[in-house]
């Protein structure tokens, strides 16, 4: 009965009118800006004849609705190929997570076409020579299997570019290891992005290198997202340009978090906890913490009478300690209570 109800509902929703008479509908077809189809050859009298009677959704459905089905994402499983594919066997030895690769629609067909000796081996040696640890190679490939599409000479050019910008060998190793997608960006794109951060946040050369090494992913992150968070920090929260720069250098991840997330956390810390902007800028890590977690711990301290954020007075509670560590560590070192008492308190919220 439920299936019939759904089927009839879909049919009724497709009706172009609620009248019981014959109607003629001329579709409004506009040229696609993406040129998916060419509508120039469609005749002017192209139309659809629709005849129907309004029916109850509870009536039996005699029409063919086999074409109506939920969208199912294409799936793939490497298991059937592992025993026969030397490439897959070698990738497994490197620690590659085949299950993670299976989730990416375009990856399995691409990987199966590769020959380990011709297409993969030299890239693995290149990464190893850069200093990517053997135990990290599998994770690197799992995140960015398309590194094998890149010409080795181009990869070397991108490494040389970093060295020309005074990034040391250990710096280059950290950048490549922590951001597997870095090497697929051309030197021109990387140069523009480094330039953006330097000019937009008024960074020195050393500060650009510091930011890049500390959080390599931020350089290749969505620039629009970075700008939106920058606007939120400066205009909506009220931090100065210097404080915004300080937040960026101390905790770049703030600019990669969701804007709504950091705004909610900021609002509770600034308004409910009466924490001044300069103190938040001193400990920007708090902006990456979930608002409800801060609220729970702050409320617990408030109940215990241990709200004391003045560093010049006894029993000082650091803003950073409020959001750091496990609940057990928080209870023991900050609240001076038991985790059992904290869990009991949470049940009352």
From TrEMBL:
<comment type="similarity">
    <text>Belongs to the mTERF family.</text>
</comment>
<dbReference type="Pfam" id="PF02536">
    <property type="entry name" value="mTERF"/>
</dbReference>
<dbReference type="InterPro" id="IPR003690">
    <property type="entry name" value="MTERF"/>
</dbReference>
<dbReference type="GO" id="GO:0006390">
    <property type="term" value="P:mitochondrial transcription"/>
</dbReference>
<keyword id="KW-0809">Transit peptide</keyword>
<keyword id="KW-0804">Transcription</keyword>
<dbReference type="InterPro" id="IPR038538">
    <property type="entry name" value="MTERF_sf"/>
</dbReference>
<dbReference type="GO" id="GO:0005739">
    <property type="term" value="C:mitochondrion"/>
</dbReference>
<keyword id="KW-0496">Mitochondrion</keyword>
<keyword id="KW-0805">Transcription regulation</keyword>
<protein>
    <recommendedName>
        <fullName>Transcription termination factor 3, mitochondrial</fullName>
    </recommendedName>
</protein>
<dbReference type="GO" id="GO:0006355">
    <property type="term" value="P:regulation of DNA-templated transcription"/>
</dbReference>
<dbReference type="GO" id="GO:0061668">
    <property type="term" value="P:mitochondrial ribosome assembly"/>
</dbReference>
<dbReference type="GO" id="GO:0003676">
    <property type="term" value="F:nucleic acid binding"/>
</dbReference>
